[in-house]
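User: Can you recover a sequence for this backbone? Please restate the input before giving your answer.

Assistant: Of course. Working from this structure:
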């Protein structure tokens, strides 16, 4: 098996080192093509108006001066074009990608780009801010200890060609992970996005955009609930944004 790794925290991030260790439990043919610098919240951005520079950092390891989506495109169309990967793993993100995070996430975008280009793909994120709150550190042990077995089980079972899997590991001690829940994308009961307005020393103001708040009260069966309760969350996602119930209802307006 040949595996491509990418992420949105950058090619030198700790999370991609952890992911490589997990991937090497599946195969010794592991490649890394990832952004040169952090691209968190890049979503599915593509560098259409700027050149993209690729640098070989080591054997099977490349940096890309662009987004996670750029990295996957360059990997599949150039670096690995003659021998494509069998699987793309994107992550492991430094923090959870659940609920509304999925739309912002460059980690998830890397997996979706792989899906779009015909390669099975999984995005992986390690939750933080629960037992690690205020420490500035991430507890990688749930990912390290549970990731290999989880991936082997998912790969053995398989999933549809038009689906990517979004995996989140809870921020608990590895021994306290309660199991795996297959979930739907949750929705928080507050808006995460905000603005921190600051006074500019030369006059006027400038802004830091913020993202984050306290826990919500999510429904059972959602990715939020699973992570809050100490379970690994596996959410099947795809690129089709159509809301079919509404499409059917609106179609009736135009039936003649």
């Amino acid at each position: 098996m040949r595996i491509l790794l990418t992420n949105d925290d950058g090619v030198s991030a700790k999370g991609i080192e952890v992911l490589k260790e997990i991937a090497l439990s599946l195969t010794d043919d592991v490649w890394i093509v990832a952004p040169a610098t952090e691209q968190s919240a890049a979503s599915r951005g593509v560098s259409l108006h700027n050149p993209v520079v690729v640098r070989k950092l080591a054997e099977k390891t490349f940096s890309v001066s662009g987004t996670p989506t750029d990295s996957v495109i360059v990997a599949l169309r150039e670096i690995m074009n003659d021998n494509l990967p069998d699987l793309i793993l994107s992550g492991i993100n430094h923090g959870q990608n659940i609920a509304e995070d999925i739309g912002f996430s460059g980690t998830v975008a890397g997996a979706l780009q792989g899906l779009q280009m015909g390669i099975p793909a999984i995005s992986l994120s390690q939750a933080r801010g629960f037992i690690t709150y205020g420490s500035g550190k991430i507890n990688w042990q749930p990912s390290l200890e549970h990731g290999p077995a989880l991936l082997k089980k998912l790969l053995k079972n398989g999933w549809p060609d038009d689906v990517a899997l979004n995996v989140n590991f809870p921020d608990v001690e590895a021994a306290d992970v309660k199991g795996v829940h297959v979930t739907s994308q949750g929705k928080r009961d507050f808006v995460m996005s905000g603005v921190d307005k600051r006074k500019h020393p030369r006059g006027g103001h400038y802004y830091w955009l913020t993202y984050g708040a306290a826990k919500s009260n999510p429904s059972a069966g959602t990715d939020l609930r699973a992570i809050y309760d100490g379970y690994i969350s596996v959410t099947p996602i795809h690129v089709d944004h159509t809301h079919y119930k509404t499409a059917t209802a609106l179609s009736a307006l135009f039936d003649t």
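That completes the design. The chain has one domain: 2-187+216-241.
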